[in-house]
């Protein structure tokens, strides 16, 4: 079964719920290595997205995702707004006019989102950022294309979770956390964590 526009709306609603539930957790992760506002910012951004969902309910998936991107850019503070905003804008551009997403479309969406983040944040894997969760997620999606959409989404989420946990021993080389040098080691990256939560919500609602 493909992901429909209705599924996309349910996914985004679930993302808002999950990020609200994990608001304090994400902020706690951000406290020692960031500005202690990642959870607050992501919660605010996706609450704004939820407010706008009724205005795009009848549109194609690409248009819905682009709305998410523009909303996040305008409402989320810090680096997360431009990064996640770019990710959703690129994901939307990759799926313009589509009312159903199949496995290859999801892979294309993840590739476009990741490339947007890398272009905007100039990050590569191993620098303790959301790229460390999204890169293995995209690769897992590619490898699972032949297994069906449900399995693809599950393996994508699991790969993101592993990538997220793998940020703990890394030395931060981007953003505020990089100022801490060796003291950034031993902390899980909040951006990688929110990336996993978003992909887990996709697997939970559309898988």
Shape: globular
What name is given to the CATH topology? Serine Threonine Protein Phosphatase 5, Tetratricopeptide repeat
Our estimate of the beta-strand percent is under 5%
Largest sheet: 2 strands, antiparallel
Structural class: mainly alpha
Would you report the number of β strands?
Answer: 2
Q: Cα-atom Rg, whole angstroms?
A: 16 Å
CATH class: Mainly Alpha
For the largest sheet, list the strands in their spatial order: 1-2
The CATH homologous superfamily is named DhaL domain
- Ranges where pLDDT stays below 50 over 5 or more residues in a row are none
CATH architecture: Alpha Horseshoe
Order of helices and strands: EHHHHHEHHHH
- Average pLDDT metric: 94
Number of domains: 1
Distance between the termini: 9 Å
List the total number of helices. Answer: 9
The level of helicity is 55-70%
Structure write-up:
With 207 residues, the chain is mainly α. α2 packs antiparallel against α9 (190-206), α6 (103-121) runs antiparallel to α7 (131-143) and α7 runs antiparallel to α8. The protein contains 9 helices and 2 strands. It has one domain (3-206): Alpha Horseshoe (Serine Threonine Protein Phosphatase 5, Tetratricopeptide repeat), CATH 1.25.40. The chain has a two-stranded antiparallel sheet.
What is the fold's blueprint, element by element?
Layout: E1 3-4, H1 5-21, H2 23-30, H3 38-56, H4 61-75, H5 80-94, E2 100-101, H6 103-121, H7 131-143, H8 149-165, H9 190-206
Antiparallel strand pairs: 1-2
Helix pairs in contact: 1-2, 1-3, 1-9, 2-3, 2-9, 3-4, 4-5, 5-6, 6-7, 7-8, 7-9, 8-9
């Amino acid at each position: 079964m493909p992901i429909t526009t209705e599924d996309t709306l349910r996914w985004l609603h679930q993302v808002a719920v999950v990020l609200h539930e994990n608001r304090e957790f994400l902020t706690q992760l951000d406290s020692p290595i960031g500005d202690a506002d990642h959870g607050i910012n992501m919660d605010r951004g996706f609450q704004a997205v939820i407010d706008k969902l009724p205005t795009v309910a009848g549109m194609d998936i690409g248009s819905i995702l682009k709305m998410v991107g523009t909303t996040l850019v305008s409402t989320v503070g810090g680096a997360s707004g431009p990064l996640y905003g770019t990710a959703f804008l690129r994901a939307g551009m990759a799926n313009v006019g589509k009312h159903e997403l199949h496995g290859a479309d999801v892979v294309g969406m993840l590739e476009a989102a990741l490339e947007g983040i890398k272009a905007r944040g100039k990050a590569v894997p191993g620098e303790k950022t959301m790229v460390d969760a999204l890169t293995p997620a995209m690769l897992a999606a590619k490898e699972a294309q032949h297994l069906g959409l449900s399995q693809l989404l599950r393996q994508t989420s699991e790969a993101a979770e592993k990538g997220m946990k793998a940020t703990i021993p890394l030395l931060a080389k981007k953003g505020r956390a990089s100022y801490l040098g060796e003291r950034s080691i031993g902390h899980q990256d909040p951006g990688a964590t929110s990336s996993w939560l978003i992909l887990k919500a996709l697997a939970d609602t559309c898988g």
